[in-house]
């Protein structure tokens, strides 16, 4: 299942991986542009554009877009993140030309009609309201806002009611012409697809894409700040998110950070799950994560628990951070490697997951990364590197705390920060009691 890559004269990159045992194809267009590429008055426009792309073109109405792909049993969707946007489809192999045609249509000939725009603004308003009513969404949004205060990276992808309601078709076209250009776009297909045939389809249907932006794309450099934000609500449970500055995709310690997150809170055998949930019964959900971006990263621990458990929960979490800077066992590293390897291999059994994986690698590294190369990077991670990283991550940067719910028993931020001031000794619970 060789990955083949062709760069067209226009600058557009086309990548395929043939999976001859399949009858379907997952294909999509990935753009190296997301909410971080918005100007101050464009907050939320990347997400709105993703919605509007399906609301009618010069050749198809919104209904016709949906009906044509579903008439052949296919599906089409899109997603917006901080640094990327994607439009993707899944169809049987005989209907790849239709999927390519529809994706090209919505990305090159979208109408952005006023009536559809006003209707979709109301849809996004409902989406914003729904997110605000979901505590585990709110705690993450507030976390990002605090970690990267007054920066595009810290802003919610959905935008605000004020910004979303203000957008015009002209503003959408301005963002589109600045960011949706061939040098920033990758078209990927995996499954029952032939490379040369797929390249010809793409070359023909995407010929009208602009090869250079109308203006220089923007993306301000990120600066991690950290801090504390709390919102007391009358809820059954408290949502707590404690985080630190992580590592960018290209940083030496990126994969090391992924392993550390797995060891601390990557599954039922992880340290936090075992100590906090299984042994002490202090919460029903706890996990650790590491998000990488192009120039920064975030390492976080999320827990959901009853407010009465907070006086014990937070110190236990911090105690586990101290322990990770002191001791990590080789078998924990091996378990984390095995889990990552399994995720890689299982992902290759899904054409949609594989297409997304290839697209991310092309955008980040400019080439597909083999599983062997990925595992070789993980093989270089040692106990010493992990404990050293834990000491620097958790005790050398300002922490970020985001919390929502019944918080009257949550310790002051000064006490939490003080307990993270040095990796010298575990069993730091007493400082927060």
The name of the CATH superfamily of the largest domain reads Metalloenzyme, LuxS/M16 peptidase-like
Main sheet: strand order: 1-2-6-3-5-4
- What is the string of helix and strand elements? EEEHHEEHHHHHEHEEHHEEHHHHHEH
Remind me, CATH topology of the largest domain? Cytochrome Bc1 Complex, Chain A, domain 1
In terms of DSSP E residues, the strand content is 15-25%
* Tally of alpha and pi helices: 16
Annotation, overall tally of beta strands: 11
CA-atom Rg in angstroms: 23 Å
- CATH classification class of the largest domain: Alpha Beta
Structural class: alpha+beta
Q: Would you identify the regions where 5 or more consecutive residues have pLDDT less than 50?
A: 427-431
GO molecular function: metal ion binding; metalloendopeptidase activity
Protein name: Processing protease
Keywords: Hydrolase, Metalloprotease, Protease
Cofactor: Zn(2+)
What does this structure look like?
The model is unreliable at 427-431 (pLDDT under 50). With 433 residues, the protein is an alpha+beta fold. β4 and β5 form a beta hairpin. The N and C termini lie far apart (57 Å). α3 packs parallel to α8 (195-205), α9 packs across α12 and α12 (330-347) packs antiparallel against α14 (371-379). Helix content is 44%, strand content 18%. Keywords: Hydrolase, Metalloprotease, Protease. Belongs to the peptidase M16 family. Residues 166-339 form the Peptidase M16 C-terminal domain. This is Processing protease.
């Amino acid at each position: 299942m060789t990955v083949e890559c062709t760069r067209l004269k226009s600058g557009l990159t086309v990548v395929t991986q043939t999976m001859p045992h399949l009858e379907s194809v997952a294909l999509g267009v990935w753009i190296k542009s997301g909410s971080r590429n918005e100007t101050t008055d464009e907050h939320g426009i990347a997400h709105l554009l993703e919605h509007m792309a399906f609301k009618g073109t010069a050749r198809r109405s919104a209904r016709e877009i949906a009906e044509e792909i579903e008439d052949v049993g296919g599906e089409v969707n899109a997603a917006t993140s901080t640094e990327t946007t994607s439009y993707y489809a899944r169809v049987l192999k005989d209907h790849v030309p239709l999927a390519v045609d529809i994706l090209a249509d919505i990305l090159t000939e979208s109408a952005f009609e006023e009536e559809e725009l006003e209707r979709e603004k109301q849809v996004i308003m409902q989406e914003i309201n729904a997110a605000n009513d979901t505590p585990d969404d709110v705690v993450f949004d507030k976390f990002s806002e605090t970690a990267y205060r007054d920066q595009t990276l810290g802003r919610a992808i959905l935008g605000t009611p004020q910004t979303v309601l203000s957008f015009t078709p002209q503003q959408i076209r301005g963002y589109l012409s600045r960011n949706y250009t061939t040098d920033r776009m990758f078209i990927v297909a995996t499954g029952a697809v032939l490379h040369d045939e797929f390249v010809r389809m793409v070359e023909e249907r995407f010929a009208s894409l602009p090869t250079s932006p109308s203006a220089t794309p923007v993306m301000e450099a990120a600066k991690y700040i950290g801090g504390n934000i709390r919102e007391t609500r009358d809820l059954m449970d408290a949502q707590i998110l404690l985080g630190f500055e992580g590592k960018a995709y290209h940083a030496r310690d990126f994969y090391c950070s992924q392993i550390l997150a797995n060891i601390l809170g990557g599954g039922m055998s992880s340290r936090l799950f075992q100590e906090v949930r299984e042994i002490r019964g202090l919460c029903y959900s706890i996990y650790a994560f590491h998000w990488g971006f192009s120039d920064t990263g975030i390492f976080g621990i999320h827990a959901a628990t009853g407010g009465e458990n907070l006086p014990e929960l937070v110190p236990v979490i911090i105690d586990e951070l101290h322990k990770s800077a002191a001791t990590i066992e080789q078998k924990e590293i091996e378990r984390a490697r095995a889990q990552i390897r399994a995720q890689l291999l299982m992902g290759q059994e899904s054409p949609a997951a594989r297409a997304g994986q290839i697209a991310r690698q092309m955008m980040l590294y400019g080439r597909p990364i083999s599983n062997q190369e990925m595992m070789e990077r993980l093989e270089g991670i040692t106990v010493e590197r992990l404990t050293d990283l834990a000491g620097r991550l958790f005790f050398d940067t300002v922490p970020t705390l985001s919390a929502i719910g019944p918080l009257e028993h949550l310790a002051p931020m000064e006490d939490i920060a003080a307990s993270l001031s040095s990796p010298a000794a575990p069993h730091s619970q007493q400082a927060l009691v």
